[in-house]
Amino acid sequence: ETVVMATLEGLGAAAAGESLGPRLLALADDPFQPVAAAAQAVLRRQMPTDPWERRAAALRAEHPYGRERIVEELAADPDPRAVAILEQACGNRDAQVRATALRALAGRAADAARRLLPAALADPNPWAAFHAAVLAPRLATPELVPALESAAARPLGTAAQAYLAEALAAAAGRPVPAERPAVRPLVHPDGR
Predict the structure, then answer these.
(1) What's the CA gap between 98 and 20, in Å, rounded?
(2) CA–CA separation, 130 vs 171, rounded Å?
């Protein structure tokens, strides 16, 4: 611990803008508070001064709780720069941030969300890919059919398959079923 903390104090002298990478980010979340505090101090010194650049940097460096809050703030911010940062957040290292940012982007700038939907549907994290599938029906266009078909071939679960089937129908101009089928029937089919 002493060695890590001394190293972090030395890194604190690093010039603003230098990237110290994922290890520093991991140390910022260390359960041993003195190590976490030292890493956070280094990160704070590296933060940009421009408020928009700070928000983008915070999405890369903040604790997951803070990243979620930042995405929510950006979703509510009418400034077009917020959309650009949400687009960047769709590539965040945290799957929850990627999914939340895409949902926020779909509500703010559907065309931007459509451009990012194929990558989100192919996300290596099944949770993030599932949440992209949830958005797919409302974003579906004929141009997205290959990405939707590719996602439908992935083992994302019954619910994701249902969303993707709706998206494929919408993209092809076919009517989407008025009633969604049960994906996990918890009630016996005859109503018992």
Answers:
(1) 22
(2) 18
